[in-house]
Amino acid sequence: NVFFHKTNRFYCHFQIKNLIFHTTFPGSTFEQAKSHPRDVAVLSPEVKTPIPGPKSKELMGHVQNFQNTKALSFFCDFERSKANYLVDADENIILDCFQQISSMPLGYNNTELIAVGKQDNLQNLLINRPAMVTFADMNFPRLVHDSLLRVAPEGLSNVITMGCGSCANENAYKAAFLWYMRDRRGYELPPAEDDEAYSSCVMNQVPGSPKLSMLSFEGGLHGRTLAALSTTHTRPLLKLDMPAFDWPIAPFPKLKYPLEEHESENAKEEARCLAVVEDLITEWSKRAPVAGIVVEPIQAEGGDNHASDDFFRKLRKIALKHSVAFVVDEVQTGVAITGKWWAHEHWGLETPPDIVTFAKKMFIGGYYFNDKVNWKTPSRIGNTWMGDPAKLHLLKKTIEIVKEQRLKDNAQHTGNYLTESLKSLENIHSTALEGSRGRGLFCAVDVNGSRDKVVKEMLQRGVLVGASGPNSIRFRPSLIFTPTHVDIAMDRLDQVLTSVKI
Ligand SMILES: Cc1ncc(COP(=O)(O)O)c(C=O)c1O
């Protein structure tokens, strides 16, 4: 690396596989610059081709032979990508504020994670993937203890792993149904002589397959497997032509931002939605009783829709009052991005949720659950792989890094800066932007005009952001995002809004 002074920053080049990165390190002394972890290096994005570029297009052509490529934006060069910067197949260096749909806690190629990837047990698990439902690896108990259980939400001492967020929710619903039936019946299994229960369930009929439901919210997304999809209410194309469970759907509060300026009208809107939740639980008790309520702490894909901590406290109380399971989907909000490991920790609940589901930045899917909803008999929930335990090594190291580098604080601090910066841009481009909002680094702003055009034009200027809901831009950067990265992103957003008709 070559360092030289440039105003009050140090500047260096480094090279990964023939690609030269130009980097500045914050800090005014050479020692500070040298000791700064390379993972937070700040680069100016460099875009050399339209995105997707020729190489990406060529690869899309190959994929098109066996798969529809319409949802692909471009191809990534993961070997060359680093920290907050994604390098694409055409060598464009992109500041990534979306991080593989919010699933990379530490950005690309974190040096400590690379070292973990070389550990024997991890490699061994990759080669000999256990059928965990029956043949778990002998290191599994220790690994779970050092990873998943270190970040278990308060009150939830049980955990089960799954492959992805959809599987996590799908199986969490099953746990809620099992609990509900045991609770109402008074014991876990019908007696062996109750032949009807056992024979009818095999044929999908009552009484063995009871009519029960999960209550979900308009604008929620909980996955794309069939039961999870029945609780997903975002883009129609995810659902069109698919059979769905006919389950109750409550309105999610439509709040005005900034929240602190609209407290009383927002409180009314939340009270309205909570009243509907209670009405639905009562109404459905004859048709398909509600066994559980599933909710995201911030509706992510649905449009970065927030609700107050008070709303969630009251929702939790409703679940207790009606004795239905309270399932919090932290697939996107988990892992420190909101400033706490789990977003529901902000709520100040008197009684913790019954189930908390996770995936994405946790490297593995699954859910935590309390003793109340735990099932007692085997073969009730499980599948062959139940996720991939090799990933727990990465989670373990990530938990250590988040703690050592105080990344929850960084999410809070840089997140506040991001929301404030969005608000400043909103003042400058008052007809184009509104509704800046965020908790930690989980931030968004609404676009009046073509949101998709803004996202596309930003990418063309080297900054990748996501879309959520009908008109929001979502920011889901890594936990090592810094205010200087925010400045770069804001600069490109400003450029787009100044120079492009949206
Ligand atoms: C809140 C939430 N739940 C569930 C899912 C589904 O997760 P997966 O795509 O891993 O199945 C997602 C995916 O974006 C999500 O954001």
UniProtKB/TrEMBL annotation:
<dbReference type="InterPro" id="IPR015422">
    <property type="entry name" value="PyrdxlP-dep_Trfase_small"/>
</dbReference>
<dbReference type="Pfam" id="PF00202">
    <property type="entry name" value="Aminotran_3"/>
</dbReference>
<comment type="similarity">
    <text>Belongs to the class-III pyridoxal-phosphate-dependent aminotransferase family.</text>
</comment>
<keyword id="KW-0808">Transferase</keyword>
<dbReference type="InterPro" id="IPR015424">
    <property type="entry name" value="PyrdxlP-dep_Trfase"/>
</dbReference>
<keyword id="KW-0032">Aminotransferase</keyword>
<keyword id="KW-0663">Pyridoxal phosphate</keyword>
<dbReference type="GO" id="GO:0005739">
    <property type="term" value="C:mitochondrion"/>
</dbReference>
<dbReference type="GO" id="GO:0034386">
    <property type="term" value="F:4-aminobutyrate:2-oxoglutarate transaminase activity"/>
</dbReference>
<dbReference type="InterPro" id="IPR015421">
    <property type="entry name" value="PyrdxlP-dep_Trfase_major"/>
</dbReference>
<dbReference type="GO" id="GO:0030170">
    <property type="term" value="F:pyridoxal phosphate binding"/>
</dbReference>
<dbReference type="GO" id="GO:0009450">
    <property type="term" value="P:gamma-aminobutyric acid catabolic process"/>
</dbReference>
<protein>
    <recommendedName>
        <fullName>4-aminobutyrate--2-oxoglutarate transaminase</fullName>
        <ecNumber>2.6.1.19</ecNumber>
    </recommendedName>
</protein>
<dbReference type="InterPro" id="IPR005814">
    <property type="entry name" value="Aminotrans_3"/>
</dbReference>
